[in-house]
Amino acid sequence: MIILPAIDIKDKTCVRLVKGDYATAHQVAESPYDTAASFRAAGASWIHMVDLDGAKDGRPVNEEIFERVARESGLKVEVGGGIRSMETIERFLEKGISRVILGSVAVKDPSLVKEAVREFGEKIAVGIDAKNGMVATEGWLKKSDVTYLDLAQAMEEAGVRTIIYTDISRDGTLTGVNTEQLGKLNERVSCRIIASGGVSSIKDITDCKKLDLYGCICGKAVYTGALDLCEAVEKAGEQSC
């Protein structure tokens, strides 16, 4: 299993939200570049980055930050937030981003997802973010009438190989991952599942590994010191500290 430490960008700073509420945004690190370097030093091979401004505006806002991290950190970078066109996807991939995450468009424009997967294959992931099992869009500000399981199945049929699942009610709360929903998701589809939201301790890492998930995203727990990133990488089986 891979561990993906997270950096969320708002107003060009590294922040974390609680339950996706933009009003709770607080700075957690000075520099995204130094933070990425520290993740690499701890043994991470991937980094998960989100353009919070882009998610709200429906267009990328902080591209230069993601591109510089991809260029300088030595990490594989996956990016989501406000990516709504083939042109944007292509531009990110050309600038060294390893995987592009499509979120709201999976609900609003599934044909774009199909086109992107045809063109770029496994470099495309879909982010499914849900409240009480129902998918939320537009930076989690709008709730849809689609269940996370139904959307996952539709994305699998569209050719998507990687799904990032976030239980919004747990994101940024340090209350543990939603193993029940993750287990159901992993049973429903054959896609590679990355868990996101609620990671609080090394137990969450071992729980996700027991579910045979592809990856686990760690945010607030790393910044608060509740989770040692090096230990998480080791427990996931990536490498020894």
From TrEMBL:
Alphabetized InterPro entries for the sequence: Aldolase_TIM, His_biosynth, HisA/PriA, HisA_bact_arch, Isoase_HisA-like, RibuloseP-bd_barrel
Catalytic reaction list: 1-(5-phospho-beta-D-ribosyl)-5-[(5-phospho-beta-D-ribosylamino)methylideneamino]imidazole-4-carboxamide = 5-[(5-phospho-1-deoxy-D-ribulos-1-ylimino)methylamino]-1-(5-phospho-beta-D-ribosyl)imidazole-4-carboxamide
UniProtKB keywords: Amino-acid biosynthesis, Cytoplasm, Histidine biosynthesis, Isomerase
Pathway involvement of the protein, from the record: Amino-acid biosynthesis; L-histidine biosynthesis; L-histidine from 5-phospho-alpha-D-ribose 1-diphosphate: step 4/9
Molecular function GO terms recorded: isomerase activity
HAMAP family: HisA (MF_01014)
Stored PANTHER family: 1-(5-PHOSPHORIBOSYL)-5-[(5-PHOSPHORIBOSYLAMINO)METHYLIDENEAMINO] IMIDAZOLE-4-CARBOXAMIDE ISOMERASE
Protein name per the record: 1-(5-phosphoribosyl)-5-[(5-phosphoribosylamino)methylideneamino] imidazole-4-carboxamide isomerase
